[in-house]
Amino acid sequence: MTKVSNLSHKIIVVIAITAIFMVTQISSVRSGTIDLSKPEFDFDKIVFTKHQPYSGYENHMIDGNFGFTAVKGGGLYILNNAFSGNPTVTNVLQNSICKNGRYAGKKLTGGAFYSFDLSYDAKQIVFAYTDAQNSYGVWNENTTYHIFKVNVDGTDLTQLTDGNVNDFDPRWLPDGRIVFISERRGGYGRCHQRTVPTFNLHTMNADGSDIRCISYHETNEWSPCVDNNGMIVYTRWDYMDRGANHAHSAWITTPDGLDARAITLNYPNSGKDWWTNVPLMQNSLRAIPNSNKYVATAAPHHAQNYGPLIVIDPDVEDDDNLSTITKITPDAKYPESETGTTTDQKYGTPYPLSEDYFLCVYDPNANTNGANKRYGIYAIDSKGNKTMLYSDPNFSCYSPIPLKPRTVPNSIPSSDIPTGQAQDGVVSVMNVYDSLLPFPAGTKIKELRIWQVYPKTTPLATDPIVSYEGTESLWSGRNTRGLLGTVPVEEDGSASFYLPPGKAVFFQAIDQDGTAVQTMRSDTFLIPGQNRLLCQGCHEPARKAAENPESVPLALRRAPSKITPDPSEGARPMSFPRLIQPILDKKCISCHNGSQVPDLRKGNIDSQTKWFSSYKNLKPYVALFDVMYPGANWDHVYPRTEPGKFGARASTLYKKLKSGHGNLTQSELHSFIIWLDSGIAPFFGDYKNIDAQLRGEQVEPSLD
Q1: Rounded distance, CA 268 to CA 308, Å?
Q2: What is the Cα 214 distance to its own chain's centre?
Q3: What's the confidence (pLDDT) of residue 15?
Q4: By C-alpha distance, which of 233, 214, 353, 323 is closest to 284?
Q5: Residue 610 CB coordination number (10 Å)
Q6: Would you report the helix, strand and coil content of the chain in percent, each value rounded to 5?
Q7: Are 178 and 203 in contact (CB under 8 A)?
Q8: What is the C-alpha separation between 425 and 405, in angstroms, rounded?
Q9: What pLDDT digit, counting tens, does each position of 114-158 carry?
Q10: How confident is the model over 512-527, as pLDDT tens digits?
């Protein structure tokens, strides 16, 4: 028997392993359960990136979007002969030299690639790239994602954005502009003990000019796509006066950012265990061709955008649970909400070919650390059957898209942004009594109260701790706010009023006693150039068509109202030291000075919260969203507002004061009402200038 040398033996082993890998890959294609001869697979090339999931501080959905967490390597590729069982790969940027900007004359090498989109004519690709300088928590031009554009053949590589902010998730709009996610607006997340800027929707021309912010929502947004009607569908973390783990659901808006609304699961599991067994995040949204449905990834809160794949049907009545959602990968559970951990992140970045067939990435062993994850490209069907098309054993694949032209959706005309100071738009409500839940019997709505919510301008959650809403020792939990004022509501429930653009606001329906009966817990806004926003009612049923009015609503027969500013000192921004403490000093501390409970003297300023003792002592008498229902806390807050059961109406403090206790004037009682009705009964009105606020001075919001 001939003896084999060690070197020969190694060569034979390598050849054998390679052959086994090739046979396994080809066999999985040929023996898979997907019929690749179906009409949906009428293409043979797939565009994708190689993008490795972040494997470091992987505890939140925001972390994978930072350039400094990106894993170096990968690229922008085309999979040729995708269904042949023996595909080849072309590096689109192999010979591409950037023609402009900071990268002019250079190749994009040494960094990392992320999300991208193919133009409708299949001739251009827009994508995100970063130098991936791994300096965690440092924002500069080398540590952030920037957007580039290139022809499919690798020519005309153009840099579109730059700077010390992350720009990512670019998508082509029907009119040739590009929608993307950016940190450019400013502001920070509210539940982090590290720097986490806020992501928002932006648009720009295809050459990178005319960048516009089209969302003034004060918390994060992700993964826009364009649906078959030309609308932008995206993921929004609707954190305003809700729990941190509130479902990050699909929202819809126009290409200009007008009239943003939730598509589904806005009140997840109301009346039940409202944080369990539903997808915590609907991410990587894509519109299914010839359908009103969307495919998405059911991602976790404390990890990246991988998980089971779901189909969302907005035409189904939303039961606040899973009526609108169908899981198409039955071998994976919803991370965190269903599993209790961040496991089952097997799938990601689905691309719909029809209601029955999809492309996606998949890793059967994805519960390992991110450094070991290897997502390959798969074809799957709506029952979870799958066939592998391609896998790189050394690097994960991301976001496969067929390289073929697709139908251009409707192009919705853009608003012209006026030069100079943007003008106020008009908001009109047809009937505030048209509500999802009934108002208390005999309620008469007299006006709408308009609150502005301010973006957080300090990075750390505890700088400062704004209010009771959230634990006193850990998190801020809520945003500061200011009362812009009120507008009248007519006898028929209609209202029409001017509203300044570029400000995140929410409305409250106010009764004859001046207390809030219903409140929004999602913000809305006008963008510059928007002339009008129409609402039917006050949380009206989403699937119910408005009844034809017998006559024109009264508010629409007159000129729109101007907002009447609230006269209270300390209402804008809402400030306990300026609004409430002076009343306590004047009317209350003669008795509540330690001899009677509660002690309402300022006392010593708490070293951690910076609150007065009086503020801390009033907490048991205030109705708070995060303690009003069994099992609620700062991150699991009951999502629905029940009319008449919150704020001043639900607080023992208001009932005591209304009975005459303290002998308050109407103006003083009103100050307590708006403080209680604000939703969070805040202490601070701004995130900065703490000493000035403690002295009771007027402080303007740092970013509005």
Answers
A1: 18
A2: 13
A3: 33
A4: 233
A5: 18
A6: 15, 25, 60
A7: yes
A8: 39
A9: 999 999 999 999 999 999 998 889 999 999 999 999 999 999 999
A10: 999 999 999 999 999 9
